[in-house]
Amino acid sequence: MSVLALAGELPARLLAQLRSARDTERAYAALCETEARTDSLTGLGNRRHGEQLLDTLQPGDAVVMLDLDHFKAINDRFGHAGGDRVLRDLGVYLLASIETGNGVARFGGEEFLLIFRDETDPLAAAEELAAGWRERQPLTAFSAGVSVHRQDRPLSITFSEADTALYRAKREGRDRTHMFGTQIPDTAAVS
How far apart are CA 78 and CA 160, in angstroms? Predict the structure, then answer.
């Protein structure tokens, strides 16, 4: 092999190695970004992802906060492995039940955040989710609070309203869904 051929081959080989290393680095960065926004137990978005979802709220979008009822009792009775199973099952259920374009994240512990994009009746949609979850005969039901984002409100107020509605559902017997600012009668069974 001539010196000129070798001199031309070496830079080409180095360039190919550099491209391969750059592609590997990009793939790793994408994996790290995905893992940074994913809850490892449920496969849903994590709190960081939930906060990003909240940042994308538009007027008419609904924020739904879900919280598993009596979750501590599940952990006490079945251990953390039993509690983890309930969390994973709910994650699978929510992913399968949420329409494309909407969002879901495990916001912390046994609390989940859902975003319904421009849903005409978010209370009914949340109640339908609760009913579908009950049909699976889980170890525990969930309570939910709903608030619709308005143009004249900061995102933090919409989130706070959904959280307030969630705690109202908990106070009034659990296994309920409430819309912030309404006095709609509950149709859900009390656990």
Answer: 32
104-159 pLDDT, tens digit per residue, is: 999 999 999 999 998 899 999 999 999 999 999 999 999 999 999 999 889 999 99
Residues shown for the chain: 191
Distance between CA atoms of 38 and 50, rounded to whole angstroms?
10
CATH of domain 47-179: 3.30.70.270
Return the pLDDT at 28. Answer: 61
Contact 107, 179 (CB under 8 A): no
**24-33 long-range contacts, Cβ below 8 Å, gap at least 24?**
none
What are the tens digits of pLDDT across the range 51-101? 999 999 999 999 999 999 999 999 999 999 999 999 999 999 999 999 888
Residue 162's φ and ψ, nearest 5 degrees, are -65, -40
β pairing state of 103-108 and 177-179: unpaired
Q: Which amino acid is at 143?
A: S
Residue among 88, 54, 84, 77 nearest 162 (CA)? 54
Measured CA to CA, the distance from residue 2 to residue 12 in angstroms comes to 16
**What residue type is 12 in one-letter code?**
A
**Which residues are known to be catalytic?**
110
